[in-house]
Amino acid sequence: MIQPARTRQLELLSPARDAEIGIEAVNHGADAVYIGGPGFGARASAGNPIEDIERLVAHAHRFGSKIFVTLNTILRDDELEPARRMAWQVHEAGVDALIIQDMGLLELDLPPIQLHASTQCDIRTPEKAAFLANSGFSQIVLARELTLPQIQAVAQALPADTVVEFFVHGALCVAYSGQCYVSHAQTGRSANRGDCSQACRLPWTVTDDQGRIVAHEKHVLSMKDNNQSANLAALVDAGVRSFKIEGRYKDMGYVKNITAHYRQLLDEVLEGRPGLSRASSGRTTFLFTPDPDRNFNRGSTDYFVQGRQQDIGAFDTPKHAGLPLGHVIRVGVDHLEVELDEGVGPLNNGDAITWFDLQQELRGVPVNTAEPLDASGRRFRVVPKDPLSELKDLRRGTVLMRNRDMAWDRLLRKKSSDRRVAVDLHLEETREGFALSVTDEDGHHARVELAHAHEAAQQPERAEAALREGLAKLGTTIFAAREITLALRQPWFLPAAALNALRRDAIAALETEREACRERLQRRAPAEPPVPYPEDTLSYLANVYNQKARDFYARHGVKIIEAAYESHEALGDASLMITKHCVRFSLSLCPKQAKGVTGVQGTVRAEPLTIQNGDEVLTLRFDCKPCEMHVVGRMKKNVLHQARAAEKQAAREGVPIQFYKTRPAPHPAR
């Protein structure tokens, strides 16, 4: 059952790479949008200037939607002051909340802005979630790996006014968020600082402890994409109130389509739950049919929400195969003849087709030209961009998919939605003329008067219709007329120009009233005295990268605080990735799977496996009690050399790099 005390609003939270995409997210029904500010976001190349943030905030607030800015990287000591200044800048720009990872920020003079705990905080337990709520966080972004019962346990441990946020769509990091260091160990690019090299999407050869190949060049660390479309009602029942779409690197078409998809699904949930409501105003009409399968995806999984599943990996390819298209019926010298499957839309110039070669590797090529061969609309002559001789295993009978559809892309480049706030208009006569009252769906009210003579209409019925039609003309505003009432002794004649001016003034007054009544989200005061952290010892996995973060944890009772992996103190073998995904389980080599199988029980053990890509070799170790996998390796020497060189160069330039260390940095081996 839904918890009576928990907030009754459901929030659809969409991503935005830039302000234009954020505006369209709002137009397509987002109750909130998260976007990178000028710096320090966990997507290194998705920052935005303050002026653009201000423009997005102004648009969103018209609908009561909110804007959250990501400040969710771990920070060096020399970055804390610039981050603090940025927090004040976005606060002054009207931003509603900051999404943060680094606890050092809580030790600074931050503005009175609401704080949300990023999924980078690795929030998996009720104890950690409750600690963060008691430390001043109002919204908690849970780990994607949690099951419904685990989500419910976290929600029940939180204060009733704490919002539980959960990812419902998009790309999945195979590691627990904030618990992956493979990129930094191999390249010096830190995932915790928004610059992941995505080693998890590479093909790896898996060998056992005797050197035997278990899987050859498979993408064993690459997950399918998250899709919780079928689980929204269950997530609501578990206590989730903010439904987050991944994708701050994604394009406009993705954000429009996926936002519209989940807007429709959440509205269906709301229709059956009269005690719940949307977290912003207005209704959205879509000028297309949303379809999440049309965007880039690696296949779909609901991950662990319904328990551990066998088929969560995109092991064959990390690319987008696309939707079924048809098959090759003939191969010419420079073209193909293709027959489309029943119900598939026509091929277009600029489309992209894909297929699997005989080794089950995904191949693809753009289409230069596509010409129908007959009136059926199912046979096409296709000239690919590349020579046919270079297209491996593209032959008669090859099954084709399409992963770029120009007709779909063109559809989403145009206006594709219309979001309106319902408003009731009441026209009455006054001694000096007329007054128009407007009341929106949220109860905001405005009234304006117009001095004008009462002129009898020559055609009363036509005059009344003209008044109603004139009042309903709200096309350039965010409003749509729901009910129009006339309180007149008779249908007076009112010139169109006068009626239009009266309507415009009333709507402008209503927008002013809506903004005046908008309440800014409040920062939660941390508990006093400070609540103890659930543990008294923190390893590098806590990502403590500055002295302020160390002070925060010490203030909350932690006795031993190791430095972050990026501080280069964990130089030996270390867990470079901790994940709920288990390669043994996915390859049917899990000891628990073998239980009860005649002739197998007791012979399958969770010995380590080795994965290799080129010169990169990592060890997979299996912790069967919590059902977790550790990817173990060590930092490359050249990463240490590059870091030391960068520190020396910064010192010479008078801008020293400073970060939390627990011991002097060792000299790298020569």
Structural description of this entry:
- There is one protein chain.
- The protein has 670 residues and is of the alpha/beta class.
- The chain has 4 domains: 227 residues, Alpha-Beta Barrel (TIM Barrel), CATH 3.20.20.70; 188 residues, no CATH class; 95 residues, Thrombin, subunit H, CATH 2.40.10; 96 residues, no CATH class.
- Helices cover 25% and strands 26% of the residues.
- It is built from 15 helices and 32 strands.
- The strands form 6 sheets. It has an 8-stranded parallel β-barrel with strand order 1-2-3-4-5-6-7-11, surrounded by 5 helices. Strands 9-8-30-31-32-29 form a 6-stranded antiparallel sheet.
- Helix 4 links the parallel strand 5 and strand 6.
- Helix 1 packs parallel to helix 2 and helix 4 packs parallel to helix 5.
- The radius of gyration is 29 Å and the shape is globular.
- The model has no long low-confidence stretch (mean pLDDT 94).
- InterPro entries: Pept_U32_collagenase, Peptidase_U32, RibuloseP-bd_barrel, RNA/ubiquinone_mod_enzymes.
- It comes from Ideonella dechloratans.
- Please compute the radius of gyration using only Cα atoms: 29 Å
Principal-axis shape: globular
The major sheet is characterized as: 8 strands, parallel, barrel
**Count of individual beta strands:** 32
In CATH, the topology of the largest domain is named TIM Barrel
- Helical content band: 10-25%
Which strand-content bin applies to the residues?
25-35%
CATH architecture assignment name of the largest domain: Alpha-Beta Barrel
Organism: Ideonella dechloratans
Domain Peptidase U32 collagenase: 401-514
Protein name: U32 family peptidase
